[in-house]
Structures are given as C-alpha cells and as structure tokens.
Amino acid sequence: MITLQQDAQGFVRMNRRYPNSVRIRTTFSDGSTGEFSGRALNKVYDAAPAEFRAKNGLDARGYSRTPAGRTNSGNKIDFVPVHPGMGE
Prior knowledge:
- This protein is α+β, with helices and mostly antiparallel strands and 88 residues long.
- The chain has 1 helix and 5 strands; from the N terminus they run E-E-E-E-H-E.
- The chain has one helix at residues 38-55, and strands at residues 2-5, 11-13, 23-27, 33-37, 79-81.
- The strands form 2 sheets. A 3-stranded mixed beta sheet has the order 1-3-4. A two-stranded antiparallel sheet has the order 2-5.
- Strand 3 and strand 4 form a beta hairpin.
- It is elongated, with a radius of gyration of 15 Å.
C-alpha cells in the first residue's frame, strides 16, 4: 500500500505512474482519507499534462511553438489534483 498526503492547495505529489492493481491511500488536507486504485490515480496523472499544455499553449508533445528565447519542457508534472470520492 502506498500512502500519499494532499497539500493545502489540493494536490498530491505523483511524479510517476503506479501499477494499476496497487492500492493507494490518500490523506486529504481536511483529515479524511480515501483509498484509490493505481488505475484511478493514473487517469488523473494522465489528464494533468494535457490540462497544463492547453493552459500554456503547448502542442501535444509539450513543445512551445512560440519564437525561440523561452524554454519550457512542458513534459514534467509532479503534482496532480485529488478530492475525496474521486475513485467512486
């Protein structure tokens, strides 16, 4: 069992995908806990880069098509939003 802690902004640190069958216990900032499958958190993890890219004008691979001068990898997400009851 893997245990994650939600921060005050509503995110957990998740810098990699977990196996689909593993159980993950999340302690939320309000003190409640929830248990999710790796599959449920992987879906959230996969959606986070897509949302980040859309907000920052990046293409599907995470590259900025603006003129040179800025660098932004866009391919690394370390924090994903979670909330109680999302695995149901």
